[in-house]
Design a protein that fits this description.
By secondary structure, this protein is α/β, with parallel strands linked by helices. The protein has helices at about 15-25, 40-50, 65-75, 85-100, 110-130, 135-145, 190-200, 220-230, 285-295, 315-320, 340-345, 355-365, and strands spanning about 5-10, 30-35, 50-55, 80-85, 105, 180-185, 210-215, 235, 245, 250, 255-265, 265-275, 300-305, 325-330, 350-355. Helix 10 packs parallel to helix 11 (about 340-345). The chain has two domains: about 5-135, Rossmann fold (3-Layer(aba) Sandwich); about 150-365, 3-Layer(aba) Sandwich (Rossmann fold). Residues about 140-170 have low confidence and may be disordered.
């Protein structure tokens, strides 16, 4: 992309279109068109060829889901969904991500202008990050995901090189270490990737799984429900004091850090805090990884997936120094290669793998040889 990103802003509210457009313009993003419903958004993308679209979820004539699907079919363009804080909008937002949207941003409520002003720097940063995504690569990843994982993928080995891979990691002949734990961190472009990784983890591995996905409150509960339906694991949103054992997974609750506060006989105890943001985010991957590295005494792995920023780099270092195994998603399949890149730059990443190989890489580390 050369010069300032060019954006189309789609929202059925004239006021919100104006507020969002003003914020983006002030942040150095050129708003080339506005649309009051999905049909206009599709037309505006065809006419102006923008670098990014901010797409309202609920709009008349054509909603954000259908508009996203049509744009991805006719002129693939990075799309950021703007979603209200409701259960219905949360469900629709995840559906839009399945259709090819890169990420979402929670629309402000109440005193809209005041809250949006508070969030303006974050919105500009996210829109700029989404604009840099190659939507063709994202589509390729989605195609690989829906094709299934029964392919010899060759995950990264413990020495950082490509592993041998396996056509079906969940085989009767495979034996795993006792009481393994994996901590997964992700941000921009992450929800569908996290879904891919968890769906590839067999129950036979008896993992304890902790997931930190940068996501606002009001969405993580629905996210956990979706992962529970698509994974062999029992997945739920984390609550303060929660405990999990093998075959269970917790998703960090929006706006709360998730700490590992205790570990005994293969069971993790979790605490939630609203301590200040770390790396400008809450929940922060570093918090969960560092506390896991401090308290988990059985085999441990850390995984960093797509996302902007540096959250997770310190956590990966902590897991590595505690003797754990670490994996980062590769650049080719990352919507945004910020977090994986920062993790790799620590020198503490054992393997770098495309998204379809991440689960296999983790399983390789936990196999009994």
């Amino acid at each position: 992309m050369v010069g300032s990103p060019r954006a189309v802003v789609a929202d059925d509210s004239h006021f919100m279109r104006s507020v969002i457009s003003d914020i983006l313009e002030e942040g150095g993003i050129d708003v080339v068109a506005q649309a009051k419903h999905g049909r206009e958004a599709v037309e505006a993308v065809a006419e102006t060829g923008p670098d990014v679209v901010t797409m309202d979820v609920e709009m008349p004539e054509m909603d954000g889901i259908e508009a996203t699907e049509r744009i991805m079919a006719t002129r693939p363009t990075p799309i950021l969904m703007l979603s209200a804080h409701t259960d219905e909008d949360a469900d629709v937002t995840f559906e839009a991500l399945e259709k090819g949207a890169v990420d979402f941003f929670r629309k402000p409520g109440g005193e809209v202008s005041m809250e949006m002003s508070r969030l303006q720097d974050q919105l500009v940063e996210v829109v700029g990050s989404v604009a840099a995504v190659d939507p063709t690569d994202t589509s390729d990843v989605a195609s690989a995901r829906t094709a299934g994982s029964g392919v010899d993928t060759g995950g990264a080995g413990a020495d950082g090189t490509a592993g041998t891979g396996t056509s079906d990691p969940d085989t009767a002949a495979t034996a795993y270490v006792d009481n393994p734990t994996v901590v997964v961190g992700s941000s921009t472009g992450g929800p569908t990737v996290v879904e891919q990784v968890l769906s590839d983890l067999p129950l036979a591995a008896d993992l304890r799984v902790l997931v930190v996905q940068h996501m606002p409150s009001g969405f993580t509960g629905r996210f956990a429900e979706r992962l529970d339906a698509r994974s062999e694991y029992d997945v739920r949103e984390a609550e303060d004091g929660a405990r999990i054992g093998g075959g269970e997974a917790l998703i960090a609750a929006g706006d709360y850090h998730m700490e590992v506060t205790g570990y005994r006989r293969g069971r993790l105890r979790i605490g939630l805090t609203q301590d200040p943001p770390v790396n400008n985010v809450r929940p922060a991957v570093d918090v969960t990884m560092e506390t896991a590295a401090e308290r988990v005494t059985d085999p441990l792995a850390g995984v960093i997936l797509t996302g902007m920023g540096e959250d997770g780099a310190a956590g990966i270092r902590a897991i590595h120094e505690a003797g754990g195994y670490t994996v980062a998603q590769d650049e080719a399949t990352s919507a945004v290669f910020g977090m994986p890149k920062r993790a790799i730059e620590t020198g503490c990443v054992d393997g770098v793998a495309p998204v379809n190989d991440v689960a296999a890489a983790v399983l390789d580390a936990f196999e009994v040889t």
